[in-house]
Amino acid sequence: MNSTKTSSDFFAKELQEFKDALKASGIHGALHYLNTRTPHRYTGIYKFDGENLRNLALYDRFDSTLTKGEDAPMSATYCSLVQKQQALEITDATEDSRVKGKIITPVVSYCGVLLRDADGKPFGTLCHFDMQRCQERISDFPLLKAAAGILYSYLHS
Asked: What is the CATH number of the domain that holds 119?
């Protein structure tokens, strides 16, 4: 069996399931779906707003009633790095030289991608994060990147 075809079929299936969750249950259903694919506790959508990062929607694996998180100063977030790098994966911030001592946040593990507006300009991030160490999740990037474009359009329709 061709592993490339199997891999692309699996991705197409995941993307369709994501779209179905968004259609059936809205933004929080879509975030819940994405969260089931990762070990991270939280999955959220954030908007860049000058020196602040605004939470637009949040899914918490342990508290499904929580639908929005707190805003934060950009300088205290990994999302600020995504704005420059397009995507970022941190398994353990206490050991990662890119962020250790540079960004002060309780978030230890992070996996996020850039959300772009209709003109392709940075709008915010779609990310998974946790206050505990999580296994590497680079495999989340293809679905997160595809979902980011869909979610931006959904938020602005």
From this structure: 3.30.450.40
